[in-house]
């Protein structure tokens, strides 16, 4: 594309203003100051600078919140032919999931093409909180709850950090529990409950950071609002 269009897309100036800056010798392409307007730039490979600073065309990324139903995998394809979460989105963009939920787990899944945000949200040092609703068969003892709160040793020897655990509903044959963690080890919740001798029979993620699933129905998705994108990108 023409250099003045490139400068305009980067928000430096309108096309006319861009020509003025080129005349003033403020614009360089691959290290060489340019002094004519009829220069084409390859927006993927050329390095364009204005006043010495690299200019990039702002990207418009996609940010989706999906209420993943069970029976879908978090992958672009599956050798067993199972349905993937992308079958529910049907976008022509190359999207990926931020972390994963198991095949039989439901709930809040972020899907995007913003690699930097994905890295940030999944990096353990950022300690993004995630809240899950867990159902187990039967009852759970106070000792087991205390162990989950204080940290348990998983089957690979990893000790989990402190978590917040609340009983939501205790019945004779089952218990519903809310648990918030800020780590993201593979199958962490099921393995934490496994460590206290309890098998998870239902698992749903209801929040990631400040994002809540709210009234989004199973299998439905929505685009994140600008405010939500800013919040999770902080
Ligand atoms: N923990 C699990 O065990 N499974 C999930 O899908 C997410 C968290």
Count of helix runs: 7
Topology, number of strands: 13
CATH class of the largest domain: Alpha Beta
CATH homology superfamily name of the largest domain:
Alpha-L RNA-binding motif
Shape annotation: elongated
The small molecules bound here are: uracil
How much of the sequence lies in strands comes to 25-35%
Query: Structural class given helices, strands, pairing?
Result: alpha+beta
Report the average pLDDT across residues: 93
Low-confidence stretches: none
**CATH T-level topology of the largest domain:** Alpha-Beta Plaits
Report the major sheet.
9 strands, mixed
Percentage of residues in helical conformation:
10-25%
CATH architecture descriptor of the largest domain? 2-Layer Sandwich
Distance between the first and last residues' Cα: 33 Å
User: What count of domains describes the coordinates?
Assistant: 3
Radius of gyration: 24 Å
Helix/strand order, N-terminal first: HHEEEEEHEEHEHEEHEEEH
SSE layout:
Elements: H1 3-9, H2 15-23, E1 27-29, E2 32-33, E3 48-50, E4 53-54, E5 63-68, H3 86-89, E6 96-97, E7 106-112, H4 115-122, E8 130-137, H5 142-150, E9 164-170, E10 174-181, H6 188-195, E11 200-208, E12 211-212, E13 221-223, H7 226-233
Parallel strand pairs: 7-11
Antiparallel strand pairs: 1-2, 1-3, 3-4, 5-7, 5-13, 6-7, 8-10, 8-11, 9-10, 11-12
The protein binds uracil (URA).
Tell me what the structure shows:
- Strand 11 and strand 12 form a beta hairpin.
- This protein folds into 3 domains: 3-54, Structural Genomics Hypothetical 15.5 Kd Protein In mrcA-pckA Intergenic Region, Chain A (Roll); 63-124, Alpha-Beta Plaits (2-Layer Sandwich); 129-208, 2-Layer Sandwich (Alpha-Beta Plaits).
- It has 7 helices and 13 strands.
- It has helices at 3-9, 15-23, 86-89, 115-122, 142-150, 188-195, 226-233, and strands at 27-29, 32-33, 48-50, 53-54, 63-68, 96-97, 106-112, 130-137, 164-170, 174-181, 200-208, 211-212, 221-223.
- The model has no long low-confidence stretch (mean pLDDT 93).
- The strands form 2 sheets. Strands 5, 6, 7, 8, 9, 10, 11, 12 and 13 form a 9-stranded mixed β-sheet that branches.
- It has 234 residues and is α+β, with helices and mostly antiparallel strands.
- The chain is elongated and about 80 Å long.
- The site of uracil (URA) has 8 residues, from helix 6.
- Uracil binds at residues 101-102, 105, 187-190, 203.
């Amino acid at each position: 594309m023409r250099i003045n269009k490139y400068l305009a897309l980067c928000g430096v100036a309108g096309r006319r203003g861009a020509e003025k800056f080129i005349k003033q010798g403020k614009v360089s392409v691959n290290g060489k100051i340019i002094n004519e307007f009829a220069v084409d730039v390859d927006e993927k490979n050329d390095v364009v600078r204005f006043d010495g600073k690299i200019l990039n065309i702002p990207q418009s990324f996609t940010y989706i919140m999906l209420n993943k139903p069970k029976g879908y995998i978090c992958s672009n394809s599956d050798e067993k032919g199972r349905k993937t979460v992308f079958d529910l989105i049907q976008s022509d963009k190359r999207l990926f999931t931020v972390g994963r939920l198991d095949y039989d787990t439901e709930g809040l899944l972020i899907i995007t093409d913003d690699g930097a945000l994905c890295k940030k949200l999944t990096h353990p040092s950022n300690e993004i909180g995630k809240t899950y609703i867990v159902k187990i068969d039967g009852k759970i003892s106070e000792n087991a709850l205390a162990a989950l709160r204080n940290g348990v040793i998983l089957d690979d020897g990893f000790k989990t950090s402190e978590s917040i655990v609340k009983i939501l509903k205790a019945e004779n044959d089952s218990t519903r529990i809310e648990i918030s963690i800020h780590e993201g080890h593979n199958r962490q919740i099921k393995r934490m409950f496994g460590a206290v001798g309890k098998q998870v029979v239902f698992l749903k993620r209801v929040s990631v950071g400040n994002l809540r699933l709210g009234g989004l129905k199973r299998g439905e998705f929505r685009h994140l609002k600008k405010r939500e994108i800013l919040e999770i990108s902080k």
